[in-house]
Amino acid sequence: MSIQVSKLFYYPIKSLPGIACEQLPINAWGPLRDRRLMLVDEQGKFITQRQCRIMAVMSLSDDQKNLTLAYQAETFTLPWPDFSQVTGTQQVQVWEDEVSGQKIGGEINDWLSRVLQRRVNLVYMADDTHRQVDPAYASQGTRTGFADGFPFLIVCQESVTSLQQELTFTLDVKRFRPNIVLSGSDAFSEDKWKTISINNIEFSLVKPCSRCVIPSIDLTTGLMQKEVMQVMVAHRKRGEQVYLGQNAVHKGQGKIEVGQPVTVIA
Predict the structure, then answer these.
(1) What Cα–Cα distance (Å) separates residue 170 from each residue in 77, 118, 167, 175?
(2) β-strands 152-156, 180-183: how paired?
(3) Which residues of 3-27 are buried (b: 16+ CB within 10 A; e: fewer)?
(4) How far apart are CA 152 and CA 202, in angstroms?
(5) Would you tell me how many other CB atoms lie within 10 Å of the CB of residue 78?
(6) Edge-to-edge order in the sheet of strand 37-40
(7) Which of 120, 176, 226, 237 has its CA 20 to 30 A from that of 210?
(8) What is the pTM of this model?
(9) What span, in angstroms and rounded, lies between the C-alpha atoms of 259 and 8?
């Protein structure tokens, strides 16, 4: 069985669509530029597709100098990753974690608030911020950005394809918001792996990813398709949660590419 990388994604703004890439640079944070930006409400609490499904049907593009956000016929271009309008810092909340975020000023907040039909503000996690990954799953010093809890999410395409067989519509792997999609294995093989290697970078698959309603959101309409959760409950429920994919931490830096082989170490 030959396992290889089939798709790669990074997510500049938490819970907005990801950007597909052929090469994914990896540094101490994890995927370069992944979830270093986040939308928060006026109390500093993070906003996701759980509260605002419009986020699912927006789009992002990154030319390495500017990040362009689009919704329907509207676009907004933001200098990225160098911001000219940082207006201070505030404490922001991601689940149980509170960290410092740099407040991004300017018209971007008004544009996003109008598009999303709620007041939001954009914040950035600065390089000198350290958000520790849960020490129950990672060594001290392992960091992540504004991701839910881990720097990587790894999914096998065959796992999504297995669920697809019971649905009448296409179940795009992008609904599960992975960073690394692997192909060439049996469905749900990622459940059994502890450590894999891609281009001499090791990934420890430390925790199954519990799933909320986000994979049930249609990426073209923003409507909820409850059948997705029904299929996951039927096949992927463990206790009170349903799971698909594996949260991971890494050892090493460099880049990985679509088409590279994957070695299962343990």
Answers:
(1) 31, 30, 7, 11
(2) parallel
(3) bebbbbbbbbbbbbbbbebeebebe
(4) 12
(5) 22
(6) 37-40, 121-124, 97-104, 86-94
(7) 120
(8) 0.96
(9) 10
Write down how long the chain is: 266
Q: Which domains does the chain have, with CATH numbers?
A: 4-264 (2.40.33.20)
> What pLDDT digit, counting tens, does each position of 42-81 carry?
999 999 999 999 999 999 999 999 999 999 999 999 988 7
DSSP assignment letter at 175: G
Q: Which tens digit of pLDDT belongs to each residue from 2-26?
A: 999 999 999 999 999 999 999 999 9
Which helix (H) or strand (E) covers residue 163, if one does?
helix 157-164
Task: Quote the tokens at residue 107.
Answer: 């018209």
Q: How many CA atoms lie within 13 A of 217 on its CB side?
A: 24
Take residue 174 and report the two structure tokens written for it: 């992008």
Reading the block at residue 57, the tokens are 């049907």
pLDDT at 1: 66
Check if the beta carbon of residue 36 is closer than 8 Å to that of residue 27.
no
Q: How far, in Å, CA of 113 to CA of 120, rounded?
A: 5
The owner of tokens 């992008």 is 174
Token readout for 209 is: 């990813």
**CB neighbours of residue 187 within 10 Å:** 16
Residue 80 CB partners (closer than 8 Å, separation 6+): 12, 33, 62, 65, 66, 67
* C-beta neighbour count of 134 within 10 angstroms: 16
CA distances (Å), origin 4, targets 66, 196, 197, 259: 31, 11, 11, 6
